[in-house]
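Tip: read the tokens left to right.
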């Protein structure tokens, strides 16, 4: 099974790219993780709906071949690290590649959200999108370490 973070936006700051690269490198061979950047739509005089529809088209092209779609959304489910690990373990048993979508500053198109298998949120706090990428990379690595009984994650 493969995992991917498909994120709308421009090139991330070097510190985000370096952090993501570190967690991508740590992932086990049987569960590789990648980050795919999708170009954000140029705002101009376009409405929010027009922007999101254009980004949806680009996201759908990047999501080809993924069986499972998880969209990060501020109204999504709150998951603990252990709950994320349980989801990940279930997805691994079910098979099929999984993509996590991080939208632009304007969010994710409503039609794409409706197609998602699940909506989750990383925090009740508003996070910069680049930081959300890095945080998701770390949490996926942490969830994997829980599944593999690796001492990276410690529960009280």
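Filled-in amino acids:
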């Amino acid at each position: 099974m493969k995992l991917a973070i498909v994120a709308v936006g421009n090139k991330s700051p070097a510190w985000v790219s370096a952090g993501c690269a570190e967690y991508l490198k740590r992932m086990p061979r049987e569960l590789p993780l990648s980050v795919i950047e999708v170009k954000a739509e140029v705002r101009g005089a376009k409405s929010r709906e027009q922007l999101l529809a254009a980004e949806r088209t680009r996201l759908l092209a990047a999501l080809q071949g993924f069986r499972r779609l998880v969209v990060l959304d501020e109204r999504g489910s709150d998951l603990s690290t252990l709950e994320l690990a349980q989801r990940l373990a279930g997805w691994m048993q079910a098979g099929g590649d999984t993509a996590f979508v991080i939208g632009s500053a304007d969010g994710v198109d409503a039609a794409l959200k409706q197609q998602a298998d699940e909506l989750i949120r990383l925090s009740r706090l508003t996070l910069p999108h680049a930081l959300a990428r890095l945080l998701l990379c770390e949490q996926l690595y942490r969830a994997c370490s829980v599944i593999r009984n690796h001492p990276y994650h410690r529960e009280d």
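The first strand starts at residue 3 and ends at 8. The chain has one domain: 3-147.
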